[in-house]
Amino acid sequence: MGSVQIGGFGARCSMLGLAAAVVLLPLTAAAQSKVSRTPDGKPDFQGIWDFRTLTPLERPSQFAGKDTLSAEEVATLEQRNAEARVDRAPRTGDPGTYNQFWFDFGNKVVDDKRSSLITDPADGRLPPLTPDAEKFAAQRAERIRQPAENPEDRPTWERCLLGFNSGPPIMPNGYNNNVQLIQTRDYVVILNEMVHDARIVPITSQPRGGNRRWLGESRGHWEGDTLVVESRNFTRNGTGTIGLRLPPSDQLKLTERFTLRDPKTLVYQFTVEDPATWTRPWTAVVPMQKSDEQIYEYACHEGNIGMIGIMAGAREQERVR
User: For residue 262, is it within any domain?
Assistant: First the structure.
């Protein structure tokens, strides 16, 4: 596999998260009084939010049956992360992408010390794949292992088309774990630093157009002080990914919920329902922290020398056949 040079690191990042059964708590009256609001009375989400965390998406096997980590376990995880950053050595088995210096997984677990970002199922693990999805995953893995003859043979994140953490859904990973929200009465714009994708979400009950897209087609509405974004009409690309480790099927329904816990904390919850991929729906919760940093340009294609080498090699093989 060719290497891909990816720029625009920003100043932060994070790793896939840990979970447990968690219930989103509504804003208290005191918190509500401190949350700024838009002219139409909705909570003002605008600004840049940092979603780095050392909490992984799935609960590690050593924490099986344990929803919450002890103070000692948290300290150990955070210390190991700090040591890895200082060591800057490539990860075991890494053929030579980045050493640890270039990754930014943050330096803390989530505030409630959950052992996974997944909150449902209760074991903090992704549900099993369906038989058809297992077959698709095996075919996709085999395809990626084969020498690439065309750009379409490489994953969309490697081709700088989709981000590995920008989603939807948004999930901490690697670096560039920042999102900017821009809000009007009729629209919300979700701008991810990764690949600088801007998802424009109309606040409307109008039906979707039906065109299938890698990022789906989103519609938003308010449930009290929570912004709910429901996305459908996804399309599966054989080597694509939207952060779910496996591209979604055209049956995916993604429901995202944005709730201000306090002026500095935005709770992001998402539920994935894709009966063609997973045997049951699953939910994760990712706390986001207000950031004073800025969104940086993500210059990926400009430095993607690995893809140039892959294609040049394929054309040379064709020439000598």
Answer: yes
DSSP summary character for residue 119: E
List, for residues 228-259, the tens digit of each pLDDT value. Answer: 999 999 887 644 444 566 777 889 999 999 99
pLDDT tens-digit series, residues 75-131: 999 988 887 766 555 556 655 556 667 788 888 999 999 999 999 999 999 999 999
The span from the CA of 119 to the CA of 103, in Å, is 26
Tokens 């922290």 belong to residue? 289
- 218-221 contacts, C-beta under 8 A, 24 or more apart: 218/168, 220/188
pTM of the model: 0.83
Domain total for the chain? 1
45, part of any domain: yes
Query: Position of tokens 């979603």?
Result: 51
Residue 167's pLDDT band (cuts 50, 70, 90): confident
d(CA 221, CA 242): 23
Q: What is the DSSP string of 77-100?
A: HHHHHHHHHHH-PPPTT--SS--G
* Residues across the chain: 321
Burial class (CB in 10 A: 0-12, 13-18, 19+), 65: exposed
- What is residue 124's predicted lDDT score, i.e. its pLDDT? 96
Give the amino acid at 247.
Answer: P
Pick from 171, 192, 223: which is nearest to 19 by CA?
171
For residue 80, which amino acid is it?
A: R
> What is the residue-wise DSSP string for 279-300?
SS-EEEEEEEEEESS-PPP---
Q: Is residue 136 part of a domain?
A: yes
272: containing domain: 29-54+127-320
Q: Identify the CATH number of the domain in which residue 249 sits.
A: 2.40.128.20
- Domain for residue 247, yes or no? yes
CB atoms within 10 A of CB 37: 12
Tokens matching residue 209:
């157009």
Distance of CA 205 to the CA centre of its chain: 26
DSSP-derived 3-state class of residue 254: strand
